[in-house]
Amino acid sequence: MSSSKVIAGKPGARIDAVFARAREKGRAVLIPYVVAGDPDTETTVAVIEAIVAAGAGIVELGIPYGDPLADGPTIAAAGQRALEAGTTLEDAFAVAQRVRERAPIIFFTYYNPIYQYGVDRFAKRAAAVGASGTIVPDVPLEEAELLRAALRREGLALPLLVAPTTPRERAARIAAASDGFVYIVSRLGVTGARREPDVAWIEREVAALRKQTEKPLAVGFGISTPEHVKAVAAVADGVIIGSALIDAYSGTRALAAAERAGAYIASLAGGLRR
């Protein structure tokens, strides 16, 4: 059986398929992050279309939230712009529905908006608009079962995060509970493109996790340059880009934003070969 085959109904099946195709081609998957509604939903749609055309394999779609614990200044500001523009959770769902054929869409949000919306209701709505999963960075492993079960019933993945401070035994349990991929946080603190990632640590962490799981490993936080992408792609299955992408088109809208975002992602895509 080809490794690009996926199990019908398996959580995050489209995500699995993207990683399998990339593996067959000897490449890592580029996973950019954009905030829904920054600076407006039409621009978000245009940006997603452009970055997928430029080489993105999976897209993280951030749902703007007023208390973003893991977000650095760039992403927090993008979320604030989206909120000031009146972007709602339903607007984020609408964006996902419009771009779902382009690439697998993974929502990035915090637990409070999901709880307020209703966990089961959120899972059903996310599935209905064609999303492939959700990342919720403030839900610890011990408290993730309710959300994970609701998402799995709808065929949605819940990638979980491994931090630099995560003990090895706990990292193994997080990897076992993750769907789609395991999100390796490359450094302590919030997101942002102002500090260099610790490539040596990333190499060690990926090598250690390889012994504990066969699931794809994606690395994020602080990755911003072609050199970063090449170094991470050499060892990991996925490369997550957030703040640097948002910086690339900040202050622009519509076609101008799409062109800048697409050009930036295209500048990184050449480093994905492993």
What report would you give on this structure?
It contains twelve helices and eight strands. The protein is an alpha/beta fold and 274 residues long. It has one domain: Alpha-Beta Barrel (TIM Barrel). It has an eight-stranded parallel β-sheet.
Short synopsis of the structure:
It is built from twelve helices and eight strands. The protein is an alpha/beta fold. The protein has a single domain, classed as Alpha-Beta Barrel (TIM Barrel), CATH 3.20.20.70.
Helices, strands, pairings?
Layout: H1 13-24, E1 29-35, H2 41-54, E2 59-62, H3 73-84, H4 89-99, E3 105-108, H5 111-117, H6 119-128, E4 133-135, H7 145-153, E5 161-162, H8 168-177, E6 182-185, H9 199-210, E7 217-220, H10 226-233, E8 238-241, H11 243-249, H12 254-269
Parallel strand pairs: 1-2, 1-8, 2-3, 3-4, 5-6, 6-7, 7-8
Q: Features of this protein?
A:
274 residues; eight-stranded parallel beta sheet; alpha/beta; TIM Barrel; 8 strands; disordered N terminus; 47% helix
Shape assignment = globular
CATH-level-2 architecture? Alpha-Beta Barrel
- Number of spatially distinct domains: 1
Q: How would you name the CATH homologous superfamily? A: Aldolase class I
* CATH class label: Alpha Beta
Rg of Cα set? 17 Å
Low-confidence stretches: 1-8, 189-194
Q: How much helicity do the residues have?
A: 40-55%
End-to-end distance, in Å? 23 Å
Largest sheet data? 8 strands, parallel
Number of strands: 8
Major β-sheet strand ordering: 4-3-2-1-8-7-6-5
Supply the number of helical segments.
Answer: 12
